[in-house]
Amino acid sequence: MNKSILSLSLASILGAVTIGAQAADHASLLKQVEPKVIEWRRDIHQNPELGNREVRTAAKVAKHLKALRMEVETGIAYTGVVGMLKGAKPGPTVMLRADMDALPVTEKNDLPFRSTKTTNYRGVDVGIMHACGHDTHVAMLMGAAEVLAGMRDELAGNVMFVFQPAEEGAPEGEEGGAELMLKEGIFKKYQPDVAFGLHITSKLNVGQLGYRSGPTMASADRFEISVKGEQTHGSTPWAGADPIAAAAQIVSGVNHIVSRQINITKEPAIVSFGKIAGGVRNNIIPEEVNMVGTIRNFDMDNRAQIFAKITHTAEHIALASGNKADVKIIEGYPVTVNDPALTAQMLPTLEKVFGAQGMIEMPKVTGAEDFSFYAMEVPGLFVFLGGTAKGSDPREAASNHSPYFIADESAFKFGTRALTEFTLDYMAQAQ
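Above: the chain sequence. Below: its structure as tokens.
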């Protein structure tokens, strides 16, 4: 045999042995961390905190990352934590993100670690609950951090662990979430090349993974319309300007924007009114009517068109009847877009974790996620982890944000492994 061929064969064999050993190593680390992830999740679930107030959760995360000998920065966007794990070899910086905040929901599950925490939210005494599964996201990312820290000598690159506050929205009058973390410079400082995130869902069973390439979750924006007229007696409407009648026409006109003025063959969109308020008595036409609603959309150009057309429609309908409309568009989260090339690149990784039978190509989701801000800066991939116990029908499971929402603990090993494999495979493919 040719000596060079022999050398190459030996190198290939030794390389395969090394890769196999690495795989065995991190499989062992994943197994060791599994009970810890469950323990962390139970503790966080029992001690939930609302957005921008995740003080205890952030302290728990920071302590864990410091124990893993990472560079740790705290106090970002109020309570955010970033841990930087530097590998022994050069390579890309992979960002992994978990959101930490709970919701103003009173838990109704009968769990030994159920939340009994309460708070005053917008003047109402309510419970606090991890009704969207962010407790599981934090615990799984803490688990992935421990596994990857145990492999730092083998890592060809760096890992940026982002524990984010206020994904569900900041308290009134405050900024928050991914947008504020970016505003405070985390990407400029740590310069990730790619961002990965996941969200547990009751709409899939444990062992299933939902994914989609391209636009995946909708933008979510709010509009407020104030129609100002002239108050008069209900028996003489001609003596004033009726904002109620104008408001009714505005509702009809705005509802025609999506159905008649936006090219929805490009991407779907939704405009919904959620509240109309005006007047106090049956025979008094009031001076003002106020309306609020939501805009959901999967294309940023369409989004801008809808904003402009709502304003134009409301102002001109009001003007035609002697009223005046003041329109305010409050921009929320952009469209969450999974980078098509990155999605295609990582599908084999996901199939390795969930198997071909566990891979579910999801329809578009009209809910929103502020992971979208990260994915506007670097290629991003955001996936959905099945959280309903095997054998149970996910169609009958309580949805995220329900007081009965529950995540089966057997799902956590899949999420922890997915975050780990995302990192290792992306780094390997970048070499």
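Confidence is low (pLDDT under 50) at residues 1-21.
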